[in-house]
Amino acid sequence: MYSSDPVKTQLLLIALLGAYSCRSSGVGLAEPQADACASERSIPPEQASIYQQQSQWLAEYRAAVDAHSPGAQSRPVFGGHLLTADSNRAGALLEPDAMKWVELSLDRFQQMGMRGVTLNLGYPLLLPWFPKSHRYLKYYKNVARAVRKRGMQLAVEQIIIYSGSAFSPFDFKLGSPTLEHYTAEQIQMGQIILDELAPDYLTILHEPDTVAELTGLRTMLDPDVATAYVKEVLSKLKRGRAQIGAGSGSWSSPLFAAAFAGIVDYLDIHVYWINPGSIANAYAMAKSASDHGKPVVFTEAGLYKSLGEGREGMPLGEDAEKDPNVEGVVAVYRRDVFSFWEPLDIEFLDVTARFAKSVDTRFVSVYWTNMFFSYIDWTRETAGMSYRQLNAQLSAQRTAEAWLAGRFTCSGRAYEAIIDGVR
Question: How far is the C-alpha of 219 from the C-alpha of 233, rounded, in Å?
Fold first, then answer.
């Protein structure tokens, strides 16, 4: 049933959704069903060394969390990324059926007990000069209403569109913006988000190294420059009721968090790498937040399946931030959809939830939410597929089919149990 043609895939999904609409009219959602667990699936020999290293790091991650856990724990809102509304999907967001998929995915999130949703909103999508910006804004206003209608919290990350990469069909050039120009336009976009979407949380700087990579603004790798940027944006925004935060990935220097914590409403920490250095950084970041009386938010969390301690094939630290490697990240992320990883994904979810509860955390959002509904088995055919074939086409199709059938993976059930434990 799989189609390698993205147009045919889109037509197939429309047909599936139409069939679902006919079946479900007047009868509500399908009864959830559990998918087969992956614990007995064999590990491909070419992935064995990565699997073993991740298993070891997960054990060390759990030990670190156990050592830090206090007697009193926080009870954060647990949610997930609404990947079907990710701004990197470009024109797919404007298709006639786009909101139906949003509604269906939110319904499934709600069935799992999620109480929060994160949206990635990429610069410069909502700026008036960007093509079709008014249509994208209308779409996101509808998405925000759909989230509110379900009584869920909304977090928005101001990211940058991965134009010209495997992560997005967009193909435009940002040119070489000055820091002043970039700052002014992100202030403008942030105010549009606050005024039109009214999020509970708005992260105005999510990863300084990613911003530096995608804009060419290498000075953002300097914590002093990044902090000045955050201060300038904060000073210009009329925030309303929203909490505004900034942060970085746990692979970055804790100096960013130490500088941000004193000026934001919350500190945002992204957890992907689980090597001991990254986990130590994450706890140092959480301590900076605590020292300033600020809570922590995890708007992104997901197991980064790489042998390298930073970006694929690169060491963690200064070199990784000076010369990031998007293609290396693509190589790692294409692994996420394979079913043999499920036991490690479940362990990551459990340990990360314990980590979040061991510090003053208000909101946690898992990034790769497709794994709650479907995985892809490793075969000779799928092992040779590109990132776009696997993630943007086959995985998207399988996830949509699972939404329609009310089918959840064991990872999905594990996350549901985590959520049940804090309700």
Answer: 16
